[in-house]
Amino acid sequence: MIRFVEFDEQYLPQMAALLATRHQEERRRFPFLQQRFEEVGQAEQRLWEEMRKPYVGGLVTLRDDDVIGYLLYEYRQDVTRGRTVYVGYPSFVMHEDEHPRLARLMYTEVGAEWIRNGYFEHVVDAPVGNDELILELLEQSFRFEQRFAALSLENYRAQPGENSLVKVKELKADEQQMLRKMAPWNSMHQAKAPAWKPITQEALDAERDMLSAYEGKEGTRSWVAEQDDAPVAFHLFTTADARHAMTTPDQAAVLVQAATNIELRGQGIGKSIANHSFTQMKKAGYEYLMTDWYTANHLASYFWPKLGFRSYMIRMARSVDARIAWADGQ
After folding, report:
1. Based on the structure, what is the number of domains in the chain?
2. Angle CA(178)–CA(182)–CA(186) in degrees, nearest 5?
3. Which domain, by its residues, includes 112?
4. Residue 190's closest CA among 176, 207, 177, 178?
5. What is the rounded average pLDDT of the residues 129-158?
6. H/E element holding 294?
7. Does residue 60 form part of some domain?
């Protein structure tokens, strides 16, 4: 007989043991993940970091006195989604011997509270190696939304098919403001088929603000590809913070934003700037590049894996019809 209880720190050591075991399994498939979290003590510290965030709750599943699963969640006010519940990479774990359907039971138990509180957007970051959890979430009406991936620069080889008309140059700190003018390119592409992602003013403002925040920031580097003296693509990198993330290798950089003029795609411009900027980042001592893309973006879903990026985490989302707040048959 299993029972569900609210998170309490007495369960933390057993929860950490579950997380450490899962991480060992993930690292067999993705060795670049942080090895230290295979240790129960490090996994426990990581869970403490999650629970210290504001507006966080947790569900623990027990069989007798043994923890067989847990689900930690954070209430958020998202700029595009609105009231959202977010479940992070270390926050949804079950014992390896348990039936995968336990994931449904846990989501059912805690999801009822989310709906009562008016949170109809549910987001889960799931390890790509955890096929059972991903399948259970799909069958609970979650959808794939965003992939997160890593590229080993040690294994990277320049891709054929560059555009010989393109010149790539690195921007100085005081030149990075020009990236703001190119900020809408990705949004304009994703508004088209088959992504059909609406372009809202809030989203555009957030994208420009994000680019502004990196201007002159230590560890930030950016390149622009030019054709006929006009910018046609850009890459923006920053040093990754590996102190807390289970999924971030040491000596890694994040490809924060990459875009090509939507009218010039398919002409080898993306390969030209990737070959140049990736080579320069490798020379700077970085061993990995991290990036992400929306799964409905069919060009990105093809382009980045072709360059060698391996997806290690997938963001899954579910939008519950808000009418359930009143149309519940009562």
Report:
1. 2
2. 150
3. 2-147+317-325
4. 207
5. 96
6. strand 288-294
7. yes
User: What pLDDT sits at residue 173?
Assistant: 84
Mean pLDDT for the chain? 94
Q: How confident is the model at residue 169 (pLDDT cuts 50, 70, 90)?
A: very high
Q: Would you give the end-to-end CA distance of the chain in angstroms?
A: 31
DSSP secondary structure of 52-79? TSTTEEEEEEEETTEEEEEEEEEEEEET
Shared domain for 48 and 172, answered yes or no, is no
In a domain, residue 172? The reply is yes
DSSP-derived secondary structure letter, 166: -
CATH code of the domain covering residue 19:
3.40.630.30
pTM, rounded to two decimals:
0.94
Which residue, among 91, 86, 89, has the nearest Cα to 34 in the 3D structure? 89
Tell me how far apart the alpha carbons of residues 153 and 308 are, in angstroms, rounded to a whole number: 9
Return d(Cα 42, Cα 44) in angstroms, integer. 5
Residues 119, 245 share a domain: no
